[in-house]
Design brief:
By secondary structure, the chain is of the alpha+beta class. It folds into 2 domains: 10-137, Fructose-1,6-Bisphosphatase, subunit A, domain 1 (Fructose-1,6-Bisphosphatase, Chain A, domain 1, 2-Layer Sandwich), CATH 3.30.540.10; 154-257, D-Maltodextrin-Binding Protein, domain 2. It contains 8 helices and 15 strands. The chain has helices at residues 10-28, 48-64, 95-99, 164-170, 173-182, 191-199, 213-225, 247-257; strands spanning 37-39, 45-47, 68-72, 76-79, 82-93, 106-113, 116-124, 129-134, 139-141, 144-145, 158-161, 185-187, 205-211, 229-234, 240-245. The strands form 3 sheets. Strands 4-3-5-6-7-8-9-10 form an 8-stranded mixed sheet, sandwiched between helices. Strands 12-11-13-15-14 form a 5-stranded mixed sheet. Strands 1-2 form a two-stranded antiparallel sheet. Strand 6 (106-113) and strand 7 form a beta hairpin. Helix 1 runs antiparallel to helix 2 and helix 5 (173-182) crosses helix 8. The longest helix is centred in the N-terminal third of the chain and has 19 residues, at 10-28. The chain is globular, with a radius of gyration of 17 Å. It starts with 9 loop residues before the first helix and ends with a helix. The relative contact order is 0.13.
């Protein structure tokens, strides 16, 4: 067992997070395209795969780091009493895609130190891709380094966006319209899949609005470790709006998104 540490060994912690993702895959993949869907009180979908995967992840993380805090989408707060070190987990980011048989979903794990992400994992089980990074170590996909795009021309970029309704909820409609006017190629590669495509440079930049902490934390770290920029804004409902990717694109799009604020 690894005891609580004032400053954890992040490489070792990343290995533990990957072990947790391995066990989560065992719960997720057998249920893909063979699972019932329920709806939570807030109207969002959930499946037994979400719950089983989070239980598996919690078991690994809590065994290795019993004193760390832990926040998960499905089971809320748990873990130990260490307020400075805290895991944040989304067992299936993209449950809508998962529940409809679309393989563009992922597992998100982040470790926060004093509220700031210092380690992140985006695991895409159906694609067998895993993006891992920790503070100062860069970002790697299946063990190979990846970097964000360095494109800076909005007129030539390929941008990603989350669901349009999320821009409405976050009060960013005016910013979205400015983005669509400036960038001809804007596609809705949502959730963890879209985030991962930015890390590898396949997408040049992405805007994802109205996020919960477990949706955002891994990307906030990984985008920077992949050589990019990540701007976090607070939306109309108090949730997080992320603009991340090529630094030359993040800055003007962040200005767009603050239009009318």
């Amino acid at each position: 067992m690894i005891g609580a540490m004032a400053t954890p060994n992040l490489e070792q912690a990343a290995q533990v997070a990957c072990q947790a993702c391995d066990l989560a895959r065992r719960e997720i993949l057998p249920r893909f395209r063979d699972v019932d869907v329920e709806f939570k009180a807030d109207g969002t979908p959930v499946t037994e795969a979400d719950r089983a995967a989070e239980r598996a992840i919690r078991g690994v993380l809590e065994a290795a780091y019993p004193d760390f805090g832990l926040l998960g989408e499905e089971y809320g707060e748990g873990g130990g009493s260490d307020e400075g070190l805290r895991w944040i987990v989304d067992p299936i980011d993209g449950t809508i895609a998962f529940s409809r048989g679309i393989p563009l979903f992922g597992t998100l794990i982040a470790l926060l130190e004093d509220g700031q992400p210092v380690l992140g994992v985006i695991d895409l089980p159906a694609l067998d891709e895993r993006y891992v990074g920790w503070k100062g170590a860069g970002c790697h996909r299946n063990g190979q380094p990846v970097q964000v795009s360095q494109r800076s021309d909005l007129a030539q970029c390929l941008a990603g966006m989350g669901d349009r309704i999320c821009f409405e909820w976050s009060g960013r409609q005016a910013g979205l319209e400015r983005l669509l006017e400036a960038a001809p190629l804007v596609r809705s590669y949502t959730d963890a899949f879209g985030h991962a495509m930015v890390l590898s440079g396949a997408l040049d930049v992405m805007v994802d609005c109205d996020l919960n902490p477990w949706d955002a934390a891994a990307t906030q770290l990984l985008a920077v470790e992949a050589g990019g920029a990540c701007v976090t804004l607070r939306g109309a409902r108090g949730k997080l709006d992320l603009i991340f990717g090529s630094p030359g694109l993040v800055e003007p799009i962040a200005e767009f998104m603050q239009t009318g604020d």
